[in-house]
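thread: overnight batch results

M.L. [08:02]
morning all. the overnight job finished for the chain we discussed friday. pasting input first so we're all looking at the same thing
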Amino acid sequence: MRILKREIVYNGQFIRINKKTFLAKNGKKGIWEVVERQNLYKRIVIIFALTKNKEVILEKIYRIPLEAYTIELPAGLTDKAGETEEEAAKRELLEETGYRAEKMIEVFSSVGSPGLTNGEYVYFFAPDVEQLGEIKRDDAEEMEVFTVPLHKLVAFLLKPQKGIKIDDKILNVLPILEYKGLI
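M.L. [08:03]
and the structure it wrote out:
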């Protein structure tokens, strides 16, 4: 597989859409449309935060692309120059949820929707977070922060309220946290 040409077809504030012309191994040419993030220095950080009482911090967010609410882990962009991914994870957790993490443990990394986007994720585990109550959200974000006991998390995710969608990143990280003995 070889990329022959890259053409920007849309260049917005947050995303860019590229049309990539490629040559496959069989000699045939093709075109692929790719969504790329504009405002990203490193990977997207995703935080599995656990309180001292073994409760998982979750967010219920209205997502305009889906026109529905989703249940998600706290997450955000590494979008400040010079910021490490661990620093971004701590900042995003505090800004979005009001919880502070003393410790962030990098768990693993992955890609999301690789047939559509160049997005890469890094997952962090934040044990024993404490609530400070300082939430700094974007005015456009419609979000509610809540907790679910760790031992009830899977049952909660398998039976969401009607119309609410579950972000698969929660389910992606659970077996790895268990495998590594973190939960």
